[in-house]
Write a structure and sequence with these properties.
The complex is a heterodimer of chains A (222) and B (125).
Chain A: H1 3-26, H2 30-50, H3 54-78, H4 91-108, H5 126-133, H6 150-170, H7 177-185, H8 187-221
Chain B: H1 2-26, H2 30-52, H3 79-110, H4 115-123
Classes of the chains: A mainly alpha (222), B mainly alpha (125).
């Protein structure tokens, strides 16, 4: 895809994201607000796909836009569908929101620019994970086009052999590096995640089971 | 101009984040608050993912050939933010589900999901 087309698509996506978010703020019909949240989630997934994170985009589209929307619609069916209009102009919340927002924008001036290959996030552990996961990536440096003199060449050769050895020992053999890191190197994170989901599931079941029992009691009483 | 092209992604994310935050603190309806939280959450995911992008790179799946020219890609985006956020998305939905179950329970007890009405009922002896 030509760069200009991608750029226009991204600008459109970001404008749509901002519009959806501001519309959700003003929405009083909860059903529409929930559907717009699903759309917001899906637009976010589209941007993630353009940002080279297909795994996250799929998960966001399935879990964020799919399951979360269904859960919210279920809650609407059990509660109410209309929100009360706000009583007075919310001057305090606006001030509370604008101040940290301005502070965060001020903070971004020290951040690396978008797509910068020399950003700190790409320079420490990331090349190691890449080369250890798939031995074939050992030539691919995180700094493309960096000038190298003879000495550093020799140096990086020894490093390459080293990483090749480590790759042979620790290589996962999965072509998708995200999957390899997630399931192999950071397997305990996924275990912790499962514990969180399990706990949340127990919580939801306990909260909603009481509901059925109380309804049965009420029906018996009548 | 250079700043706008280099930092617009953070600014959009901050705008979305603050919109979610505003919904959480300014709206009295509990479901609206959960919606605001999930908007905030998605913005944080986007913040991480934008930091992982490398210009000219492609998704870190190997081997990567260009779909028209057939050349091998030499640059890859950072896989580590994706790994972190994959875990965070699922945990986020789990907490949302718990929050929604609590809302159902509150509605059962108080008959409303508006925060001010709930507080009013609590104040009555």
């Amino acid at each position: 895809m030509p760069a200009a087309v991608t750029q226009i698509t991204v600008i459109l996506l970001l404008a749509l994201l901002a519009c959806t978010a501001t519309t959700i703020v003003r929405m009083r019909d909860l059903w529409a607000a929930v559907m717009l949240t699903g759309i917001f989630s899906f637009l976010g997934a589209c941007w993630m796909l353009i940002l080279d994170a297909p795994d996250v985009a799929f998960t966001e589209a399935a879990v964020g836009a799919g399951i979360a929307t269904v859960l919210m619609l279920g809650t609407l069916a059990l509660t109410s569908r209309e929100a009360k209009p706000p009583e007075h102009f919310p001057i305090l919340p606006i001030a509370v929101v604008v101040m940290p927002g301005a502070a965060l924008v001020f903070g971004t001036f020290d951040m690396p620019y978008f797509g910068d290959p020399f950003a700190p996030a790409h320079s420490h552990v990331m090349p190691e994970y890449m080369s250890d996961t798939v031995p074939d990536v050992r030539q691919i440096e995180s700094h493309p086009g960096e000038p190298q003199d003879a000495h550093s060449d020799e140096h990086s050769d020894s490093q390459r052999n080293d990483s090749q050895d480590r790759g042979a020992h620790h290589g996962v053999g999965v072509p998708n590096i995200i999957t390899a890191v997630l399931a192999s190197y950071r397997g305990y994170d996924t275990l912790g995640e499962t514990v969180v989901i399990f706990t949340a599931g127990i919580g939801v079941l306990l909260l909603l089971r009481g509901r059925r029992e109380r309804r049965d009691v009420e029906e018996d009483g009548e | 101009m250079k700043e706008i092209l280099g930092l617009y992604n953070y600014w959009v994310v901050i705008f979305l984040m603050m919109t979610g935050f505003y919904i959480v603190i300014a709206r009295r309806n509990l479901i609206k608050k959960v919606i605001g939280l999930s908007i905030f959450q998605i913005s944080v995911f986007l913040l991480y993912i934008t930091m992982g992008k490398v210009t000219g790179g492609t998704a870190p799946i190997l081997p990567a050939k260009h779909f028209t020219t057939g050349e091998d890609f030499q640059t890859f985006s950072n896989p580590l933010p994706s790994v972190l956020i994959l875990t965070a998305i699922v945990v986020g939905v789990a907490t949302t589900a718990l929050a929604l179950a609590l809302i159902v329970r509150i509605h059962e007890e108080y008959g409303t999901i508006e925060e001010d009405e709930i507080l009013e009922q609590d104040r009555e002896p």
